[in-house]
Amino acid sequence: MQPQWFKEATQVCLHGCCQRPFLTPPETQKTVGKSRSTSSTCRHHFAVTTTSSFFSNTQFTNHESLPSLQESFAQFTKTYPRYSETSQIDQIRAKEYCHLSLSKHVCLDYIGIGLFSDSQLQSHYSSAIPVASSSSPPPQNSEFPLFSISYKSVSFKSQLLHGGEGSELESSIKKKIMEFLNISETDYAMVFTANRSSAFKLLAESYPFPSSRKLLTVYDYESEAVDTMVRTAEKRGARVMSAEFKWPRLRVHGGRLRQILVRKRKKKKNRGLFVFPLQSRVTGGSYSYQWMSLAQENGWHVLLDACALGPKDMDSFGLSLIRPDFLVCSFYKVFGENPSGFGCLFVKKSTVPVLESSTSTGIVNLVPTRKLLSFSEDSSEIDVEQASRLGIEEVRLPASSFFSGPILAEKQEKEKEISEKTSELVQEIECRCLDHMNSLGLMLISSRARLLINWLVNAMMKLQHPNAEERIPLARIYGPKIKFDRGPALAFNVYDWKGEKVEPILVQKLADRRNISLSYGFLHHIWFSDKHEEERERVMEPRKSGEKETKKRGKADRIKVVTIALGFLANFEDVYRLWAFVAQFLDADFVEKERWRYTALNQKTVEV
């Protein structure tokens, strides 16, 4: 059971709002009450400052009345002078991710942590030119990885116990990731998976649900990965349950979740698997570390979904003490039209014995970049076996397989050259994106995201349709509003002047026309009290014919929403451009104008 000082510590400031956040036990820190009071004051002061300093007593009813980007940024930096301390992020963005500025693209459509920077990929390609085919055009940023993945069908449990370190490439990447996540190789084993969904399914296929029957999840949104785990677990006899979220702020219904976690056990055995994300990647809601601690105290195995955590959040104090049995994370390109990467599934070594043997196709190997090395038609070539071992596809065999004299010597020289270059490729794998985040640290990254997301929330709530009598807000935000410890994600919907919701897919399409990438999703497991029953009927989404419906009173099926997420490279211009775009819906004819404008340009019309 966790000591009381730990439970108090996880509730106070861990992000630098106070000069000396409380991180030590009572024997070295005797001002617990004072620290908690100071933390509470800091958080309250932040919320008041954000609300009162930006557009105080102002409502924008016309998109043309918005202050300019320059005016807004000047006010922003005046209110948040500490934002200037994050200028190092702007320097990294300008130097390593210059394509963001050149393309003027605002990428807000997914939360991801990448391994490499854009300039690193370009540099890597340039260095490969001497041995690559000169006729091959330079690949696009989103299509040129430093390595690829290959599937393998093995026993998950055996892989954890006897898989070894893997190739030199895999060992190098694994070491960098574990260092970044602050995870010890002494305590955890790891496998690479194709993606987040594969990791969730892999665990569901191996977890002992026949004896530990329960699966409890904490997600306020529909997730393909979680749905995959649920379906797999149900087939294996699991009883699936979910936390509920109170309308309208979508806070965890603590009473009900606690009731599930602490029910008395008839027999002394594991209750089941508790899947916990710490933060919603859709609404930005954050959840206490104490839920994991409570689950562990009551016999649950804990899976921490770290995919929604911000960069370096694994360095926070709570996670240094609460070590989950399982952890899932994913590494994708930070920005790009088609994010690609892989997932990681960590298992505490002391937990491996409880898993059951199962064979899955979700485990992958990392292999060197294919098609990196190829040779001209008149050059001597290497054999197929060597090419396969090096992960090289485009190697041509000579007309004769017999070599002698100078030809054999040239062949051997080529083999040596390829071996050396492949070895260099592995040795020179540099995860520059991880290095950037390591150098910036938790406090700097989280502080910047906090300022940007709260400014955006406040600005969105200032948009109102010009119907003075009805006072219809343009945007409705779901989940936490202005809050110090909210995550850098936002779920909202746009409403027209009649109070009718604009279809989220339409909002996404119109944003894309302005080079702004948004996404959409579904909120679910929402609990409505009696006083919000009428609102429940108004906001819940009807399901399509044949879909399973939730008939339990007080629980809505789902709500379709527009979603955005701020990565660590996001800047003020990104959030301002989103705000300015949403404000255009204040024009009652905006959608119609867009339809006719693109029709006139002979482009595909936007479907309403």
The secondary structure category is: alpha/beta
* Oligomeric form: single chain
* CATH fold-type name of the domain at 147-367: Aspartate Aminotransferase, domain 2
CATH class division of the domain at 147-367: Alpha Beta
How many helices in DSSP terms? 20
Envelope shape: globular
Tell me the strand percentage band: 15-25%
**In the CATH hierarchy, what is the architecture of the domain at 147-367 at level 2?**
3-Layer(aba) Sandwich
User: How far is it from the N-terminal to the C-terminal residue, by CA?
Assistant: 55 Å
Strand order of the largest sheet: 4-12-11-10-9-5-6
Radius of gyration: 27 Å
- Number of E-state strands: 19
Low-pLDDT residue intervals, each spanning 5 or more residues: 1-32, 129-144, 370-404, 549-556
**Kindly state the mean pLDDT as a whole number?**
80
Fourth CATH level, the homologous superfamily of the domain at 147-367: Type I PLP-dependent aspartate aminotransferase-like (Major domain)
* Proportion of helical residues: 25-40%
Strand count, sense and closure of the main sheet?
Answer: 7 strands, mixed
Describe the 3D structure.
This protein has 20 helices and 19 strands. It has helices spanning 4-9, 32-53, 69-79, 87-96, 98-103, 118-128, 156-162, 168-181, 196-206, 224-235, 254-261, 290-297, 317-321, 384-390, 405-427, 432-460, 504-513, 533-539, 572-583, 590-600; strands at 106-107, 147-151, 154-155, 188-193, 214-217, 239-242, 245-246, 251-252, 272-276, 300-305, 326-332, 341-348, 359-360, 364-368, 475-478, 489-494, 516-517, 519-527, 555-565. It is of the alpha/beta class. The protein is globular. 38% of the residues are buried. Among the domains are: 1-45, no CATH class; 147-367, Aspartate Aminotransferase, domain 2 (3-Layer(aba) Sandwich), CATH 3.40.640.10. Mean pLDDT is 80; it is low at 1-32, 129-144, 370-404 and 549-556.
